[in-house]
Amino acid sequence: MSMDQLRWRPTVNERDFIERALQSDLRVDGRNSFDFRTLKITLGREDGTSEVQLGETRVMAYVTAQLVQPYRDRPNEGTLAIFTEFSPMADPAFEAGHPGESAIELGQSPDSCFCNLSIQRCVSMEPNVDCLRFSPLRESRAVDMESLCVVAGKQVWSVRVDLHILDNGGNLIDAANIAALAALSTFRRPECTVGGDDGQQVIVHDPEVRDPIPLTIHHMPIAVTFAYFGEGNIVVLDPTYKEEAVMGGRMTATINSNGDVCAIQKAGGEGVMSGVIMQCLRIASVKAADITSKIKKAVDSYTTEKDLKKVKRLPVSVPQKIHVTDVTMENKGDGELETQTQTAKTPSNVQQISKDPAPMVEASSEEDAQPVTDSSNAEAKSTSNPHGANGESDEAQEIGSPKSLKDAIKPKHKRKKKSGRS
Amino acid sequence: MESRRPPPSPFVENYVVPGDVVLDLSEMTNQTIKLGAGLRQECDTIQATSSGKLRLSKPNKYWVESSQKRYTPSVEDTVLGIVVDTKPDNFLVDIKGPNLAFLPVLAFEGGTRRNIPKFEIGTLIYARVVKANSIMNPELSCMDATGKAAEFGQLKDGYMFDTSTGMSRMLLSSPTCPVLEALGKKLSFEIAVGLNGRVWVNAPAPNTVILVSNAIIRSESLSGIKQRAMVENLLQKLT
Prior knowledge:
CATH class of the domain at 2-186 in chain A: Alpha Beta
Shape of chain A: elongated
Largest interface: A-B, 19 and 24 residues
Radius of gyration of chain A: 27 Å
Structural class of chain B: alpha+beta
Distance between the termini of chain A: 62 Å
Number of strands of chain A: 14
Largest sheet of chain B: 6 strands, antiparallel
Order of helices and strands of chain A: HHEEEEHHEEHEEEEEEHEEHHHHHHH
Number of domains of chain B: 3
Strand content of chain A: 15-25%
Strand content of chain B: 25-35%
Helix content of chain B: 10-25%
Number of helices of chain B: 4
Number of strands of chain B: 16
CATH architecture of the domain at 2-186 in chain A: 2-Layer Sandwich
CATH architecture of the largest domain in chain B: 2-Layer Sandwich
Largest sheet of chain A: 6 strands, mixed
CATH superfamily of the domain at 2-186 in chain A: GHMP Kinase, N-terminal domain
CATH class of the largest domain in chain B: Alpha Beta
CATH topology of the domain at 2-186 in chain A: Ribosomal Protein S5, domain 2
CATH topology of the largest domain in chain B: Ribosomal Protein S8, Chain: A, domain 1
CATH superfamily of the largest domain in chain B: K Homology domain, type 1
Oligomer: heterodimer
């Protein structure tokens, strides 16, 4: 009863009107049959986050990665998993925790184009089946999985895409797909190297030390959804919420800008003539190219903005030189400050190494800072020795890139200012 | 009973948030004030329970006006409801509220047991809220206070769409809101606005209905002048 009560149903009036208007080639929102609604791609402040607005539909995506053991049958490949959350806030028909029919279809859709989970995924929505298990079917691999391997059979990157449906205005599949692609395009995983005593230890470098690495994306599979009305002879693109409630069937074609069909999904509904499907695929390939360029444009402007920010920081780092030495001096006397700086340091060994030489390089010109830098230098050497060549190259890069220098210093500078006031 | 005019609340025509003390009753004795939606009495004070604009209808009616997708039923509102289920005594009607509303099968002009109307599920109904409180399902009626049909009842054909409650209040306001005025000069159409944010539009040609509904949806956040310009723009595209 409660579920029934929540589900939105179109009135007889809407149903009749939508169908009658479509007979004369009119859509209730004034669009043409093969128009997408306005697409707005917003990329978050951090890498790997995006929010896509397609008409009234809103989907947020964020990408995270962690090191895991690979699956035994694929020891040298990373993994990509997509999770979709359906909040009841987006649509009262969504039940918290229980994906409905549409949820399963949608959850499976972005997967099927990235690494093709196909029907396997549908089954895996059962709670006791491992959701992450990939089917061996991998036809179109948008994200390069082998480049996510760190140590074959031991450590690979597991990339996770979380999709949050914020508002359901219809055609969630396409919106979620675009959001996932945009987020994956801006996502950067931390660089890591293999070293240590046995040469098998994986060192994850702090993003401030070494620039994180973007994923290798071979192509962008774009989902384009068509809705069928009448006896399958009326076709519209990008159905709205209301059209979805009235339509007789739906087909999602996943196609990239080269026109390669990656997946076609048609779950039930009215039968459609093969000629109509071919026509839809032609339209979809045009739309896919269009959307790909939109995503690329958004990603490009995001990356250039990000790069510009890095450049702007440079002149600021000059006056900070003085502060750095000050901080290190105070460090000795002020116990409280010391604990602060220590907690701020990340636990990883490598980060410590590379952060410490940073002030050293700058401070070498300042004579009064000499003793401090000496000690830090020694510390750096002692810890970096086991890594051998790796540790050295780390340092070399450190000197070369002014951005990471500044980044390493900045928090200290801020802390110094605060303590000065108090 | 009322000897002197009470001083109006300083918040009138301003925005209030839940918890704002709108009126202090200890200063005003022997006066009657009437509270509408979004206000409640807390000891000697009147506090806002929802956020929105505080309105005063002279001499003594206060309420809070807000714009939202959800509708809180209140008595004497005219709403557009969708029949969800039919029971022997009532139709269950969805009016976008927290609960389904009951529409007694006899609440029609001249309604008797013999002539119960047949509404299939999904029928659109224009009705009036007669009972509304937080613990019971609201009750609707398809008669005005004098027992006449007065335009209430089933709406046939046409197209229904959802807007916010603020939008529907704007459409019902007088003088006629600029969108409807501009549209009405050029096109002929029928419109029914429910205070629950539902609007029904009907016209002989489907493209008129589509134009009118899109013009209304788009006018939500536009000023009067912009609304007229937008309507002009849409009308030009039509021809």
